Amino acid sequence: MIEEIYNYFTIEMLYYWVNLGVLPFWMILIFFPQSNLSRYFITSIFPFMVLASTYIFVLYKSYLNSYDFNNNFSLYLSLENLSDLFTDKSYLMLFWIHFISINLFVGGWIVKDSYKFSINKILIAIPLIITYFIGPIGLLIYWFLRIFYAKKINLYD
């Protein structure tokens, strides 16, 4: 039974499930940002525990497949080394889980922060959708929206 589950979750299948699994979190953040479901389920630690477990599973599968983890540190040496790392599906999947987790965290932060300034949930949907696709730009758009509602520029908070 365990062997069948382990064999089912290939890197390609994990990619499919991670992408599909994160969509309900984003739908709740976008359509119901001020609900209790969002507050207690999405902006809590729960989605990150699931994503971290997936990350650990990919690390474990990579370890069993004799992946060279020392080679990961070469990504800081040149853009070409980074490009070479992305040719490995295990590394690419680790990166993708990392990317999805950070974007979801930022989306949760946007929702939590918007409570402080009573920003309209329809307006919050725009930076949330952009954050889902291209995280930093969505965060920047939210920051401009936040300046308008807070009536001050705050570079830290």
Structure overview:
There is one protein chain. By secondary structure, the protein is mostly helical. The protein has one domain (2-150). Helices cover 76% and strands 0% of the residues. The chain contains eight helices and no strands. It has helices at residues 2-8, 11-31, 36-42, 46-64, 79-85, 89-117, 121-133, 135-150. α2 runs antiparallel to α7, α6 (89-117) packs antiparallel against α7 and α6 (89-117) packs parallel to α8. The radius of gyration is 18 Å and the shape is globular.
State the gist of this model.
By secondary structure, the protein is an all-alpha fold. The chain is built from eight helices and no strands. It has one domain.
What keyword list fits this structure?
single chain, about 160 residues, mainly alpha, 8 helices, about 75% helix, globular
Distance between the termini: 49 Å
Q: Sketch the topology as an H/E string, one letter per element.
A: HHHHHHHH
Gyration radius over CA:
18 Å
Structural class: mainly alpha
Spans where pLDDT lies below 50 across 5 or more residues: none
Please describe the topology of this protein:
Layout: H1 2-8, H2 11-31, H3 36-42, H4 46-64, H5 79-85, H6 89-117, H7 121-133, H8 135-150
Helix pairs in contact: 2-4, 2-6, 2-7, 4-6, 6-7, 6-8, 7-8
